[in-house]
Design a protein that fits this description.
The complex is a heterodimer of chains A (463) and B (120).
Chain A: H1 3-62, H2 65-84, H3 86-93, H4 95-118, H5 123-199, H6 214-272, H7 279-307, E1 315-317, H8 319-336, E2 340-345, E3 352-354, H9 356-373, E4 379-386, E5 392-399, H10 428-438, E6 442-448, E7 452-460
Helix pairs in contact in A: 1-2, 1-3, 1-5, 2-4, 3-4, 4-5, 5-6, 6-7, 8-9, 9-10
Chain B: E1 4-8, H1 12-24, E2 28-32, H2 35-44, E3 49-53, H3 61-71, E4 76-81, H4 86-94, E5 99-102, H5 107-119
Parallel strand pairs in B: 1-2, 1-3, 3-4, 4-5
The chains are: A alpha+beta (463), B alpha/beta (120).
The complex binds adenosine-5'-triphosphate and magnesium ion.
């Protein structure tokens, strides 16, 4: 059942419960009222009976014949009263009791009439009068007392019922709120965490069995959104790849055309001006041609590196070891450029699962860039450390070079983007980016023009 | 008086080779690797022809063309480029370029074009 349905159901249930309790309370009150009314009537009647018996006493004690008349009158009046409240009395005590009461009163009255009719004081009739009087009194007392007890009982009973229903409603309310938190709050927590990871770029999907209610449809919607985002991202990556392939091809055409043109112009000039060139110039020309072919070779080699099978040859490795190996490769370059190097290798780094050669290639590219950005006497700092969350191993390469102007920053990872005077291919960072991306890692740049640049390569720790 | 020719290309070899060939023809040649100093030089010394590369770091060939044409409308500009792309060619022609050479440049054709430019 859907949560909405369940809520409505439990609300209706609670409502009915309250309704029943209310009806019960009203009904109890009503019956208490009837009984109280009866008790009031009974008190009146009792009073009348008491008066009759007082007259009866006068009759017996003082031989007052007039007392009988009084009793007769009072009994007749009381009978009238009793008749007029018969409905209330029947309602409170039942017809049987009413009939009995009426009969006792009638008996009493007939006993009185009997005596006064005969005008003789025979003991038997007097005894009958006394007995009937007592019977009437006792009966009336008894049912009054009984009704009083009943009222008390009803009050006690309603107290108990109300008490129990209070707890029933309380427990029901608690159950509903527990249910709400379980069925609504928990899934929302989950959805929240998924939303967080989606906004962080991890297009997860909630795998748990999906409840068949409103939170379930929210989860399904989020799942399909996440899937959609994932496929969109793949499309974007795909089109970016195509775009960068376009840039690459245009770049190759341009980059190769330049040395090609140089070679062509040297050759034309060589042929054209052969006679006016001396031996040294001719050799210089050929050297230049060799230099230009070298340029083309470098471009082609970088391209080949890039088009090599992308799958890295992964192995568990220690980042500090890779950094030390890299340093051996570039030490010569650093010495030539008179650059001081400091190594700050973190202790207790988690291992990484990488292609050591490819990562070395990345570091060589970064160090080469740093050297090119610094004039002689600069300082290079290579440090390794564990990432903040402990899930990555970071290597940063910091130089004190000229930095990267803000307007170049978006382009430095593009193929063939280069600001180098000495004809860099502009593929170094592009290739490095590709390698790191293939390792599920990241490259970050932090640069202050005029002060220096830090590239940080962050790779996932191997678990 | 021999004609004065300025060559701007960030590839040093282009300037070097063009200079050898053009000096043989009796022209006076000055070469530059960057447009900025070239334009400075143009302001202090008249030239008949400016040969410029299109794609250069800093000031590029189209900007050179515009600047030259606005300062000295009579100076002929010849454009060379490693990356012959139609859009750029159209833009260059609209900008009143005298001739347009994709790399690799045939020096003989460049010489002829210069000759024609000077006759105009
Ligand atoms: N450490 C750095 N300091 C300053 N600028 C940098 C640094 N690293 C990269 N750059 C800028 O980014 C550009 C691209 O770098 P990239 O390594 O891709 O190409 P490159 O060094 O120019 O040529 P190559 O292909 O020979 O590496 C550089 O030309 C330079 O402008
Ligand atoms: Mg580089």
């Amino acid at each position: 059942m859907k949560i909405g349905g369940k809520l409505i159901f439990s609300n209706i249930f609670n409502f009915l419960l309250i309704l029943i309790i209310g009806a019960f309370a009203i009904q109890n009150l009503n019956s208490i009222l009837t009984k109280l009314k009866f008790i009031e009537i009974a008190d009146d009647l009792n009073f009348s009976f008491l008066e009759m018996r007082l007259s009866e006493k006068n009759y017996f004690l003082y031989r007052d014949e007039g007392a009988l008349k009084e009793i007769e009158q009072k009994a007749a009046v009381t009978q009238g009263v009793l008749n007029s409240v018969s409905r209330d009395v029947i309602r409170a005590t039942g017809r049987q009791n009413y009939d009995l009461l009426e009969r006792y009163l009638g008996d009493y009255l007939s006993a009185v009439k009997d005596i006064s009719a005969r005008h003789s004081r025979d003991l038997q009739s007097e005894e009958r009068l006394r007995v009937e009087g007592r019977k009437l009194m006792e009966f009336s007392d008894r049912i009054t007392h009984l009704e009083r007890t009943k009222v008390n009982g009803i009050i006690l009973y309603s107290k108990q019922v109300l008490f129990v229903s209070f707890f029933a409603i309380l427990i029901l309310a608690l159950t509903i709120s527990h249910f709400l938190s379980k069925r609504i709050v928990m899934p929302i927590k989950e959805i929240e965490s998924i939303a967080k990871s989606i906004s962080a770029g991890d297009f997860k999907i909630i795998q748990k069995d999906i409840p068949n209610d409103e939170t379930g449809s929210v989860i399904r919607a989020i799942n399909s959104m996440s899937g959609e985002l994932r496929s969109r991202e793949e499309q974007i990556i795909q089109s970016k790849k195509l775009a960068s392939l376009g840039i690459l091809i245009a770049g190759v055409a341009h980059e190769i055309n330049n040395p090609l043109n140089n070679i062509s112009m040297i050759a034309q000039t060589y042929a054209d001006a052969y006679d006016s060139l001396d031996r040294g110039q001719r050799i210089d020309f050929m050297g230049k041609i060799e230099g230009e072919t070298e340029r083309i070779k470098r471009i082609v080699k970088n391209l080949l590196d890039f088009s090599k099978p992308k799958e890295p040859d992964l192995a568990v490795a220690d980042m500090n070891g890779i950094v030390k190996d890299t340093l051996k490769l570039v030490q010569n370059m650093l010495d030539v450029s008179n650059i001081e190097t400091s190594l700050e290798l973190g202790a207790g780094l988690p291992p990484v699962f990488v292609d050591g050669h490819q990562i070395q290639q990345v570091f060589v590219n970064l160090v080469a860039n740093s050297i090119q950005a610094m004039s002689s006497g600069g300082r290079l700092t290579i440090s390794t450390f564990t990432g903040k969350d402990g899930n990555t191993v970071e290597t940063s390469i910091a130089d004190t070079g000229k930095g990267i102007p803000q307007e170049f920053l978006p382009h430095i990872f593009d193929p063939f983007f280069s600001t180098r005077e000495d004809a860099g291919t502009g593929l170094g960072l592009w290739v490095s980016y590709g390698i790191v991306k293939n390792h599920n890692g990241r490259i970050a740049v932090d640069t202050k023009p005029g002060r220096g640049t830090t590239f940080t390569v962050s790779l996932p720790a191997h678990k | 008086m021999s004609a004065r020719i300025m060559i701007i290309d960030d590839e040093k070899i282009v300037g070097d080779m063009a200079r050898i060939s053009l000096e043989q023809e009796g022209y006076e040649v000055e070469t530059f690797l960057n447009a900025a100093p070239a334009l400075d030089r143009l302001r202090e010394q008249g030239f008949d022809i400016v040969v410029t590369d299109l794609k250069m770091k800093g000031i590029d060939g189209l900007e050179v063309l515009r600047t030259v044409k606005s300062l000295y409308p009579g100076v002929k500009v010849i454009m060379i480029t490693a990356f012959a792309n139609l859009d750029v060619a159209i833009e260059a022609l609209r900008g009143d370029v005298f001739d347009f050479f994709p790399k690799p440049v045939k020096i003989k054709e460049l010489k002829e074009s210069i000759k024609k430019a000077l006759q105009n």
